[in-house]
Amino acid sequence: MENVTRKAFLAGAASLAVAPLLGADGRPRRTPLMLDVKRMAVHDGPGMRTTFFVKGCPLRCIWCHNPESIDPKPQEALFQHLCRHCARCTRDEETCPTRAYKLYGRPQTMDDIVAKALEDKAFYDASGGGVTLSGGEPLFFWEWAAELLGRFKAAGLHTCLDTSLYAPPAALEALLPVVDMWLPDYKAHDDERHQKYTGVSNRIVKRNLERLVAAKAKLEVRCLAVPGLTDGADLAARHRYLASLGIVGRQVVDLEYHAYARSKYLALGMEDTMPPERGER
Amino acid sequence: MKNLISVAFAGLLAGGASADWQLVWSDEFNGTELDSSKWGYELGFVRNKEYQYYTNKTENVRVEHGCLVLQGHRVQWKNPDFVPGQTNDWTRARADIAITSGSVNTRERFSFTHGRIECRAKVPARKGSWPAIWTLGADIEEVGWPRCGEIDVLEFYGQTPDRVTCNVHGFSETTGRYASPGGCELRDRTPTDGFHVYALEWNEREAVCFYDGVRYGAFPLGEYGGAFSRPHYILLNLALGAEWMMPESEVEVDDGTCFEVDWIRVYRKAAAASGREAPAGGVSDYAALREELRAFYPAAYCRGACQAPEQAASCKAIGDDLDAWAAAHLGFDALDVRRESYLAMRRHFVPFLFANSPFYFEAGVNGGWSGARPARHVNRICGRFYREQGLIPQAAWDLLSARSRENLTLCCGPFVDDMHHVPPMRTIIRKGFRGVRDAVAAALANCPKDDPLGRKELETALVGLDTVHAIQLKFAEEAERCLKTVGAGEERTRLLRIAASARRCPWEPPQTFFEALNTLWFVREILGYVDGVNIFALGRPDAWFIDLYRRDLADGRLTEAEARDLVARFLIIADCHEADSAPVDSYDDQEAEIPLTLGGCDEKGAFVYNELTRMFLDAHLACGCVYPKLHVRVDANSPQAYLDHIGRQLMAGHAVFTVFNDRRLVRQFLDEGFAPEDARNYIGCGCWNGYIDSCQDVDGANYVSLVKILALTIHRDPEVERRCGLVLDPIDGARSFEELRDTVYRNYMRFFRSLMSEYTRYGRTSAKVFPHPVYTMCLEGGVESRRDTTDGGITGRQRPKEITLGFVGNVVDSLCAIDQVCFRDRVCTVREFLDAVRANWKGEKNQRLRMLAMNAPYWGDNSDRSTSLMAWFMKRTHEDVDGFATDQGGAYRLAIFTYREFMYWGAKTKATPDGRYDGDRLAQGFSPSEFRCKEGATAVMNAIGRLPNECLYQCNANLTFDASAMTPELMGAILRVFAEKGSHLMQPNCNSVEQLLDAQRHPERHRDLIVRVCGFSARFVSLSKRWQDEVIARHRLK
Predict the structure, then answer these.
(1) Number of structural domains, chain A?
(2) Are A33 and A13 in contact, with CB atoms under 8 Å apart?
(3) Is A54 part of any domain?
(4) Considering the entire predicted model, what is its pTM?
(5) Domain around A197
(6) Which of residues 838-867 of B touch A (CB under 8 A)?
(7) What is the Cα–Cα distance from B1030 to B1038, expressed in whole angstroms?
(8) pLDDT digits (tens, 9 = 90+) for B578-601
(9) What span, in angstroms and rounded, lies between the C-alpha atoms of B898 and B419?
């Protein structure tokens, strides 16, 4: 009952994340830890889907609602409101009696991921659904993502990719053939604002968006409106820009901002950067 | 949900409750002082030795902020009425006044007889506070209390702030004493959290109480010397403690000791909608039908027969005749008594026709399990044979009751379930009761001389069938009698139709859509009446009657609108068999074995989704019915529109469905050797049982708690084991998982075998006590066998006995947990692990072991280990039970479903290795344990799909889907996958946690939200708090 499993795991997981694995072409490549799987997901593309979340993201959005998905390394979290303060904490997710202790990020082989995805194939077929890769930022691991989505396609599954589009051109080219539907974010139109709140420029994002349009990729662009930061004029500017690319109507989805993730920042020992949501003081 | 009500039905709903009531008196308390034209004060010490002294001072009684405020205060006053040495009059015996309060009434200002009184009020959360909204007979001065009558719309006691009560008090002329039916209490509410609406509907028959629109109590008012047919005045008061309640010093009196009344209103029934004398006009008047039915059927299910005095008298006359006959005849047997009962019924049967119902069937016995039905009198007379003739020895009775007391087993009867019977609808539709009689008469003519028992069975059945005919004709006569007094209008049209139809049908087969629908009710009720069998299904009208319906339309006998009206009324009759808004908590609160089957393949194999299917589905939603339960049959080739139709209704919060998988059930019946047209014609019965109408009789509700046997294996109790005849091998020392698993299995199979042998040995004895000759002859093979269905007349595949493997999910989870922790991870020994279970997981070390157990594979996660273990259990049990014959020569059929026992039996089952604590709920049927499930509904459905489902008969999973992440189309897709996966049954709920929590806070906004609870559905707001919480907890499973 010692926390051997945890230690061994942490060591193993870290080595997996740090030491790049070899890709199908024999070249080393980055492989993500997996955060979560959501079955019967209905907001991540058409029909009923299974969504896989990877851990690791190059952006630093201050409003990030999945702070555990930013760092590619495994992370411990302690939810104080659940903790019953045992005399001897095992710091082990498996034995924590209240699940106050949580370990984010687990290695998972591609075979396991594909097998998991295939479990619900009957439901995808009946509902016009499939699988969605989300994160984190899947394109942070684009070689791995291309291979995984390729395997999904080969298994006859419809694929969606939920991404910030902050990725090199090569990533897009590799993914285009294996993604049936793209679910990119467009976080801010004003570049200064984009840099300030996400840590990166939106030039790459816009270039990639234009490339997707040129490639006639199927799209559903998500626009988050953070009160006082990216709502109002910026949201309107994003809509105008998207319309100029021909992305209109149901291809644009505005998302309301919520500050639900505050407790996770606290549990992870991270600084809570989330701006207040509407009505929140 | 409104937008989903089809336009056609929206029209029919007009003229609901509000339109029927006219406001006759009210006080909205919007002024600045009490309106003295409406209210007077009570002053001083008044009644019940209550502590408060009523005054008319503004600190005790005032109108402010739009409310009447009655407030209590602590004072130190001298009692002005005090007479030293007074002992007879307590109001003068008290020297001091410690508490003051207010009480107002409408005496000599306003009184009313019958109507609806509504009051929006807020009660104080203070110990000793006893506010009330009530009425007293205006003639109290002349006749005194209790002769004047008293109705308590609300009584609230601050020391039990989670409940409200209503009551009726009067004087019984029969007993010459004070009389009250006893108060009705609505628990698990939060009346003190704000204003709530307390209401009472009062008519000549009964008083019905409501809390926020939820009906929770009803009192028959037939007795009491007419006290409730005379005017009553209204009282509002805040009493504060009384001698019988608590010491005066403990009464909490502070600034918050206020009873606030926002408004009070009295309505009278609009004349046009009040019962038989004033016939209702127009098809839209379902409120009148509902009111009439509710007045007729008992408010609570098992409390008794209908409330019509004519039926009660007739029932008693039959009983008296039978008792007299039995006293005069020695050496009779059960068939003799049955024959005499048929004859007595012919003499005494009193038909009842509802003014607003087009159908004729009502025999006044509530068709369900009511012990008041006259056929049960046969059981009462012959029940003594069990002991007198030594049919069942005392030791067997003791064993039976010990096992059921310990929640090891449940059976709806001593050794056979005599409460669930498959209807013989198709027989009667095909050849009428006359056809059955002809067959019986022919068999009697050819009956071999050496079969006196067969002859007697047939002769008795003939008498019974003639009684059925006589009963039917009495309906025609009753309709003719009513026609003499009823003028033109809807009711006359209905009576004319009944007078014509009841002359011939269902003695002769139905020839119109109306007659066909009527036949379903008639067969159900009349077989319940004559034979005491509870027919637990109404059949599948969309498949059986579509030709009649189309022919009626083509021939101009019926319009579509008329058909819709018939269908709506057909459904409402089922809905009103129960008090559909009575609070639901314990077994008897809400139950109606009245399901209707829709969809599925017809006898040629084509899928049925026709005008009638749509009509029944739409009417059920539009009329807001909870009952009949809808058993919808699906298969992988069901039309998408049909699945979407069901999906839409689920999304609308109308979870009244059990989904039956044709792919599994039809296959099963074919494998058993039934003819394809029969197999395809199975119907949904009871809670979740598929059987073949007219072909089968079953013994359907027998439960065994596997997890209780496992719990007893761990938490030993020699005394219980001895009383229940359990022999349990210990598992603490198991050296391998297989050894442990086999020991657990051996323990339970040993019990199972002993149970089966008890059933087989004593089940047949019911033939000596309670035979069903008429019912038997209506079933296929009954006439030929010349033996009663209780006596092996219907046997083999036609007569299965179903046993439910209760809570096998918890057993699988427990074994997986021990396997993981003790044999795979080797964290501790089996003994150490079981010690943790025995300690109810107390202590840090045990808590960690519990978490390890909770992380092990569990049933429903679709992992290989849990799924194969479940499959192993199913297969082994199936093999070991195969070949055992039941008392009726049929086979044992295994099932997996659980009724309310998952809550009640869970409460009395100790901690188990799957991480359950003492008393936690158990897993529901095929659904995973609520405490374990992480993977969600698709994983459960996938796991079920991998099981050897052919081993078992009826397996049900309750699955909850999150409405906030669902569309009707997705719901439809889920139903299709369910059909493809090959599992038996599913009961879907589609709601969201937010919606359910809001319904708890604002029940008035969610009156129409219906959830599937277990074998029944209920309005969510009618469920008691613990059941509401359980339904919410299912979202962990989504």
Answers:
(1) 1
(2) yes
(3) yes
(4) 0.77
(5) 3-268
(6) 844-845, 847-848, 850-852, 855, 862
(7) 14
(8) 755 566 776 555 566 789 999 999
(9) 17
